[in-house]
Amino acid sequence: MRLAGKTALIVGGTTGIGFAAARLMIAEGARVAICGQEAERLREASAALGEQAKAFRADLRNVPEIRGLAEDVGRWTDRLDILFLNAGISRPGEFNGVDEAFFEDHFAINVKGPFFVFQQMLGLLGSNASVVITTSCLDEMGRPGMSVYAATKAALRSLVRTLGAELVGRGMRVNAVAPGPIDSGIHAKMGVHGDALVRLQERIAKEVPMQRLGVPLEIAEAVLFLASDASSFVTGHELVVDGGWSEF
């Protein structure tokens, strides 16, 4: 029970990595709140997680909604020990085809949202709190068609360093987990289905030294390490979990 007595908020906790992290944290003794944008996914995830989970809805592109989320969470608990900022979108876009809406949507959800959620939750985060932000191994790779997405994740990587340094005096730790290719349903959300999805995943798996895609639980275990007291001397760090994809 590595998180016994702790309270966590997972933003982007209804599917994939976020949901796996919520389930693992509950199994390790934490009380967990999840946040998402789609009401039906929230209901399904909350029902699957059981009575130890609480669900909140918010659109991370909207700062007033983020303030409302902080107020709602504050009525649910007077202290957060863990904040996992996992919400994000990923869509490929060739450089000469990116328009303003595509650019702004990625930065609003992937950077603006996590930044202001973190800011608005500061009053609830206790001393020795752990904040974990989902970045990506693509923040260190040059992958065609991923310029905007990778830039948002590089911005988050920078925030982990600067906010980690700024908040260390409060006893707070700020770290990142950087997934590689994970079979988390993200490609389906990008509009790839059926045989095209199988071919895409097979192609990516051949590029990974371990010759496979990861699974959400493998990222959740890394998040658990960063969220727990096991990483008490770790801050400002990005833990890459990508099967060696970005290393070789």
Describe this structure in words.
This protein has 248 residues and is α/β, with parallel strands linked by helices. The protein has one domain: Rossmann fold (3-Layer(aba) Sandwich). Helices cover 44% and strands 17% of the residues. A 7-stranded parallel beta sheet has the order 3-2-1-4-5-6-7, sandwiched between helices. Helix 2 links the parallel strand 2 and strand 3. The longest helix has 22 residues. It starts with 6 loop residues before the first strand and ends in a 7-residue tail after the last strand. The model has no long low-confidence stretch (mean pLDDT 95).
Summarize the model shown.
The protein has helices spanning 16-27, 39-49, 63-76, 100-121, 147-167, 186-189, 194-207, 216-227; strands at 7-11, 31-36, 53-57, 80-85, 125-134, 173-179, 238-241. The protein is of the alpha/beta class and 248 residues long.
List the helices and strands and how they pair.
Blueprint: E1 7-11, H1 16-27, E2 31-36, H2 39-49, E3 53-57, H3 63-76, E4 80-85, H4 100-121, E5 125-134, H5 147-167, E6 173-179, H6 186-189, H7 194-207, H8 216-227, E7 238-241
Parallel strand pairs: 1-2, 1-4, 2-3, 4-5, 5-6, 6-7
Helix pairs in contact: 1-8, 3-4, 4-5
Record keyword descriptors for this entry.
single chain, 248 residues, alpha/beta, Rossmann fold, seven-stranded parallel beta sheet, 44% helix, globular
Parts with pLDDT < 50 across at least 5 consecutive residues: none
Strand order of the largest sheet: 3-2-1-4-5-6-7
Indicate the percent of residues in helices: 40-55%
The mean pLDDT is: 95
| SSE sequence, one letter per element | EHEHEHEHEHEHHHE
Distance linking N and C termini: 36 Å
- Label the structural class: alpha/beta
The CATH architecture comes to 3-Layer(aba) Sandwich
CATH class: Alpha Beta
Continuous helix count = 8
Please describe the biggest sheet, giving its number of strands, its sense, and whether it closes into a barrel: 7 strands, parallel
CATH superfamily membership:
NAD(P)-binding Rossmann-like Domain
Which geometry do the CA atoms define? globular
Using DSSP, what is the number of strands? 7
Q: What's the domain count?
A: 1
CATH topology: Rossmann fold
Rg value:
17 Å
Beta-strand percentage?
15-25%
